[in-house]
Structures are given as C-alpha cells and as structure tokens.
Amino acid sequence: MPLKPSAQRVQDALTERGLGERVQELTATARSAAEAAAALGCQVGQIAKSLVFRARTTGRAVLVIACGSNRVDLAKVEALVGEPLDKADPEFVREQTGFAIGGIPPLGHDRPLVTVIDEDLLGFERLWAAAGHPSAVFPLTPAELVAVTGGQVARTA
Predict the structure, then answer these.
(1) pLDDT on residue 28
(2) Higher per-residue confidence, 127 vs 31
(3) Would you place residue 10 in the very low, low, confident or very high pLDDT band (cuts 50, 70, 90)?
(4) Strand 136-140 relative to strand 127-130: parallel, antiparallel, unpaired?
(5) How far apart are CA 91 and CA 142, in angstroms?
(6) How distant is the alpha carbon of residue 98 from its chain centre?
(7) Cβ distance 53 to 97 under 8 Å?
C-alpha cells in the first residue's frame, strides 16, 4: 500500500540520506508523544517530537527536536539561538516546513531550519519520529537523528 504523499516525502528524504525504507503508517494517530508511544509500545521519552518556533527578531524558523517526555525550556533554547522565540502558528509551520502540525518530521523540510536536538534523546537506543502525517512514523538511532538533521545537541528541558 503506498504511503500518503507527505509521508512519502519523508521516506524520500530518508532514502536520499541512505537510511532506506523506514516510514510506517499506524492505524492510530500519533499527534502527541503519548499517542505515538502508546501506538508503538515504547516509552514516551523515545518519541522525538518536532516543535517549531518563530524567532522574534529575524523571523526564522527554529526546530526543536525534544524528548517526548520533556517540556522545552524556551529560555534555554533562546540562549542557544541568540534571540527570543515565539510559538509558531500553523500557517508559519506549514510555510517553513511544508508539513502540518501533528506530523512534522525532523527532516525533509521545504527550507533549511535552525535545529536544536534535546540531549536527553541521546540516552535511548532507538527513537521514533513523525513522518509528515499524524499517523506516520519512522525509527532511527540518536546518531542518525543528529546526522540527518545537522542539529545542535543541547539541554532543552
């Protein structure tokens, strides 16, 4: 069965980076880390949740890939990127990433994003990330996440 178009975009990005066929479509939605963990039978912390913020000064998009069990400390991320951040609205998220909130993947975006990766994700052997659609996910290791995103690993919680 073919993947939904947005999930196929993520699969194509994975394939381009040498990670092969990984995208899976679940029967349940995985809009939140808790939903994804329940559907996958893994710990909430293994979910690499993608959150997009709008930099207040430059207007650039900042992607924070956070451990599913953590709440992002905005002040820590602001110190890393050097400017205040605001929560991004759905239109900005789609414009910057090409994906809707609830299925934002860590790669395959329409334009390059400043990316920060929660260091707590490095404590797991296997992670799961959204694959462009609320019911699509893919597995990867923390090292693969860092490699495919080029993100800066830092404390974000």
Answers:
(1) 83
(2) 127
(3) very high
(4) antiparallel
(5) 29
(6) 13
(7) no
Each residue's pLDDT tens digit, 18-54? 999 999 999 887 888 999 999 999 999 999 999 999 9
Task: Record the pTM.
Answer: 0.96
Give Cα separations from 94 to 24, 84, 131, 148 (angstroms): 22, 21, 14, 20
Would you state the torsion angle of the CA atoms of residues 114, 119, 121, 125, taken in this order, to the nearest 10 degrees?
120
* CA 121/CA 48 separation, integer angstroms: 7
Yes or no: say if 125 and 109 are a contact pair by the CB < 8 Å rule. no
Cβ proximity of 50 and 65 under 8 Å: yes
Cβ-in-10-Å burial (0-12, 13-18, 19+) of 52 comes to buried
How far apart, in Å, are the Cα atoms of 144 and each of 31, 75, 89, 90? 22, 27, 29, 27
